[in-house]
Amino acid sequence: MYTIKRTNSDNLDFQKLVLELDKDLAIKNGTTNDFFAQYNKIDLIQHAVVAYEAGEAVGCGAIKEYESGVMEIKRMFVLADSRGNGIAGRVLTELQVWAKELGYSKCILETGDKMIEAIGLYKKNNFKIIPNYEQYANIVSSICFEKEI
């Protein structure tokens, strides 16, 4: 049984999971990782969620305002041993519900073309591919998504 906790970037479990995410991304992104890292700072995130299994933090995600009416989904991650159990989908759903409760009407996000599982997750949850936005506009390895909520 998994539980989801709403929190912020001060949460130590969230911070530990983000460290694991950053290690994973450094391997997958290789030399381009520094570019992406600059857009993934967590020091001021006010809306983060952590998924727990038997009291252990196993997954996370966050949202931050991108512009009026639009939240950007950030820092989605599930520990390797816990993947395939629907945790990422539950985290993603919770982030969308929270964004809607806060008065937002759309969520956007960016992922890399090597993140096959993430791309599948977003498509399965009715996110649509859009032209790359702002900082990702000229990054050919980026894939951007959006969803009206």
Describe the structure.
The protein has 4 helices and 7 strands. Strands 1-2-3-4-5-7-6 form a 7-stranded mixed β-sheet, with helices on both faces. 32% of the residues lie in helices and 34% in strands. Helix 3 links the parallel strand 4 and strand 5. The chain has 149 residues and is an alpha+beta fold. It has one domain (2-148): Aminopeptidase.
Give a quick precis of the structure:
With 149 residues, this protein is α+β, with helices and mostly antiparallel strands. The protein has four helices and seven strands; from the N terminus they run E-H-H-E-E-E-H-E-H-E-E. A seven-stranded mixed beta sheet has the order 1-2-3-4-5-7-6, sandwiched between helices.
Report the CATH architecture: 3-Layer(aba) Sandwich
User: Poorly predicted ranges (pLDDT <50, ≥5 residues)?
Assistant: none
Number of continuous helical runs: 4
Which homologous superfamily in CATH is the superfamily? Gcn5-related N-acetyltransferase (GNAT)
Percentage of residues in helical conformation? 25-40%
Q: Looking at the structure, what is the overall shape?
A: globular
pLDDT average, as an integer? 90
Give a quick account of the main beta sheet: strands, pairing sense, barrel closure: 7 strands, mixed
Give the distance, in angstroms, between the N- and C-terminal Cα atoms.
26 Å
E-strand count: 7
CATH class identity: Alpha Beta
Taken as a percent bin, the fraction of beta residues is 25-35%
Strand order of the largest sheet: 1-2-3-4-5-7-6
**What is the total number of structural domains?**
1
